[in-house]
Design brief:
Helices cover 0% and strands 50% of the residues. By secondary structure, the protein is mostly beta strands. Strands 2, 4, 5, 6, 9, 10 and 11 form a seven-stranded mixed sheet that branches. The protein has a four-stranded antiparallel sheet with strand order 1-3-8-7, with no helix packed on it.
Length: 109
């Protein structure tokens, strides 16, 4: 079993920034990712990153969000800049079939 614990969500105005963190309870050798789910919508991939640091981004966030990981700390991060109201969602950390509890991100004036 792997536990994933997210932190860093909150409420910001459009154009603002937030940094999410996800700490894993064990060493993760595979890719880790961030997903999000807005009310009434399906959960979607935001970004993922391999252990070696190769990152992949969904089109809506490319150029605004940056995913990174610290393997020594078993932690993955999501730096979110230039946030938009449509980024409002619950953000989930993922590895394989393990999910974190989610952290709310709200972008509103």
């Amino acid at each position: 079993q792997v536990q994933l614990v997210e932190s860093g969500g909150g409420e910001v105005q459009p154009g603002g920034s937030l940094r999410l963190s996800c700490a894993a309870s064990a060493t993760i050798y595979g890719a880790m990712g961030w997903y999000r789910q807005a009310p009434g919508k399906q959960r979607e991939l935001v970004a993922d990153i391999t252990r070696r640091g190769s990152a992949n981004y969904a089109d809506p966030v490319r150029g605004r969000f940056t995913i990174s990981r610290d393997n020594a700390k078993n932690t993955v991060y999501l730096q979110m800049n230039s946030l938009k109201p449509e980024d409002t969602a619950v953000y989930y950390c993922n590895f394989d079939n393990f999910w974190g509890q989610g952290t709310q991100v709200t972008v509103s004036p």
